[in-house]
Amino acid sequence: MQEKGTISIHTENIFPIIKKFLYSDHEIFLRELVSNAVDATQKIKRLAQLGQYSGELGDTTIEVAFDKDKKTITITDKGLGMTAEEIKKYINQIAFSGATEFVEKFKDAKDANEIIGKFGLGFYSAFMVAKTVEINTLSYQEGAQPARWTCDGSTEFEISEGDRKERGTEITLHINEDSEEFLDKWKLQGILDKYAKFLPVPIKFGTKTESVEDGVDDKGEKKWKSVEVDNIINTTSPIWTKSPSDLKDEDYLAFYKELYPMSEDPLFWIHLNVDYPFNLTGVLYFPKVKNDFEFQKNKIKLFSRQVFITDEVKDIVPEFLMLLHGVIDSPDIPLNVSRSFLQADGNVKKINNYITKKVADKLGELFKKDRKVYEEKWNDIGLFVKYGMISEDKFAEKGKDFTLLKNTKGELFTLPEYKEKVSAIQTDKEGNTIYLYATDADKQDAFIQSAGKKDYDVLLMDSPIDSHFIQHLETKEEKTQLKRVDADVVDKLIQKEDNYENLLTEEQSNKVKEIFEKAINSQTYSVAVEGLSPEELPVTVTMDEFMRRMKDMAQMGGGMSFYGAMPDNYKVAINGNHPVIDKVLKAESEEDQTRLAKQAFDLALLSQGLLKGKDLTEFVKRSVELI
């Protein structure tokens, strides 16, 4: 048997196009060929189950091998095999509609997966690295003859009689000079570890050395010897393919260590398993997240029928869950997935919504089951939850029942609980409930204590995302405002009808204002004399809540860069009812007035952590003189 012919395509430039456009992703060839071998193996097993194949299945291990001297890579399976006619049908006919359309569509292409998937070029990705490809195959069908197919990278092929004696297919790639990097054990091992680590059929790649027991020595101690065993690179039944009822915590933790060997144990995990209206399995882990808002290198891995596709999953997983770890496997997502597919496919959106719901349900379940344990984990999971509340309305609906607010005393409350706690005492004259918050409890301690004297509660909002979460709360919580505890004096933060009256006359107030403006001598600070409690500080330096919040959001990249570039401006509130202000007015000389005013102002700066450098040195020197 011998036949020559021309591959049925509409251009003779198909192979240069493949090599040109797929070059940056050329390691994909091994994934494609091994996946094809797995498919062929799975099919013969299925036929045997259905009684349509009565022969012995035998060992169905797929083998990947290379020969550096001969410059070949070989992938061998014991699957269905092919007849000569099937080779013509499945190999020689590349389904694409025309050279002009192809070249035009992909002239600027950067995504090799998109090209492969669009035109069914999985097998032909072999020509990214090979100058010649041989197929030596024998079909499972009774009486079938072995066949050999050879192609040198042109559109011409040759089919001749093969010499294979057992069912299956052997594909040999004669590697071209530009791709000899693949004739390396560790390079190939790395690609197999990446793409084939969890394939459902054993994949052998050479051998490895293992130590096994070899009896005992004269002292009764175990002896060991080294033996060569098959190097099986994959786990054929990873935990996401199993029922949760068959798994223990140790299984989930062991799998996590297999995925991310150097990581701490996760906090908890979610086992995904749905078969309608789409197919999806997987395990998502909640890791301990450092409070630096950096996306972890340990990303969620996307599989299709246990073949690794990518760890860029932002179109499948809700953005707020990108900090999770683990795996997702869906046969509804093609192996050669492209970004455009993910954005357009209806199942992807359903998967996204399903994952959001599962995560919300899991968090709600943990909270109800053991609130104390949930609270202990809040510092680690709060970032996920707050991000989800901000970015996903469906998650926010469920999340209000397990989202916690923490105050400066370390107490935790759900959103409804906190509203009930503070609404009675922290409601202003306009009927707005005011949530006070601190971003740095140590730095803002004076303001927290001032609020405490009025029995006001202060929340701690010190995570990187809290500037956005504050905006979210104000949007969702009716007649609720959040104000940073050092954004103004406490009586102005929560304005009541019974505010203190300024006991200074208008003339005295103007004089005090003039003295302090002279002492401060800066356009950055605007001075105002106000009637406050005598127990408050004589001088308070604050930044307007709106401006401070915009600057915080600008630092987080919240689209407020305009505010971030603006200079800092502060309000200086002079407590006209404080004895120190009376002392300033009664000072013997103008110089003494200025010095006392500067001292009171510097104390206010010091309480905000704003007194630095030369000003701090002068303050210390002046303090010694005043003692």
TrEMBL record:
Sample GO molecular function, one term: ATP binding
Superkingdom, natural source: Bacteria
Pfam families per record: HATPase_c_3, HSP90
Keywords on record: ATP-binding, Chaperone, Cytoplasm, Nucleotide-binding, Stress response
Family classification: Belongs to the heat shock protein 90 family.
PANTHER family: HEAT SHOCK PROTEIN 90 FAMILY MEMBER
Protein's name in the database: Chaperone protein HtpG
Organism, scientific name: Arthrospiribacter ruber
